[in-house]
Amino acid sequence: MCGLSLLAACSGTSAQAHETNEPVQRHGVVAPQTYVYECNDNYSFVARIEGEKAWLFLPKKTLRLPHVPSASGAKYNDGQITFWSKGNEALIEDGQETHHNCKNNRAKAIWEHAKLGGVDFRAVGNEPGWYLELKQGDSVVFVADYGQRRYKFATPAPMIDLQARVTTYRVQASEHELVIVITGQGCRDSMSGEPFETRVTVIFDDREYQGCGRPLH
Questions:
Q1: Segment holding 178, helix H or strand E
Q2: Are 13 and 89 in the same domain?
Q3: 120-163 pLDDT, tens per residue?
Q4: What's 82's domain CATH number?
Q5: Predicted TM-score (pTM) of this structure
Q6: Which residues are within 8 A (CB) of 79 and not within 5 positions of it... i.e. 6 or more apart?
């Protein structure tokens, strides 16, 4: 992780059109869902739904709430805190204050979902839309052409050039070659203008993709 940390210290997107944080069943189990709720009173929080429980990452504390019956939507309560959601809207009340009209920020939720899923570094780019998610010591996933192509490889050891502030990952598989070059240089998404800490070049089978990224841990 030193290479990614180094680049972060040195230092939204249209690709999200094909990304999703919707419920997906895997082997009969609904995969975790992540939301970033922004309320009318400038209060915001992250909610992670995992089966019959909800993890709430609030500004000053983290809570685990069990699911309870509800006439509509999904309701979670531990006897003191209530979290209720329906679609992309939610409310939260803790007996002292209530936050209404909280709406999911899908763009932010995609990044939080990756972070809570263990992704260490994430990058995105446009024309065509692509994204990359890297877990140190585990796997790197590259999704290209607006989600039409998805590839997964074991994460190789990084090659780090401290002076140039560049970290390179090179994967040589039986059928494909993937090169990831992360440069500790400010970058803005070519469509949304969102700022990022690093500039990212991905070369996949002699095709080059340009984009931006940031470490998540």
A1: strand 177-183
A2: no
A3: 999 999 999 999 999 999 999 999 999 999 999 999 999 999 99
A4: 2.40.128.200
A5: 0.83
A6: none
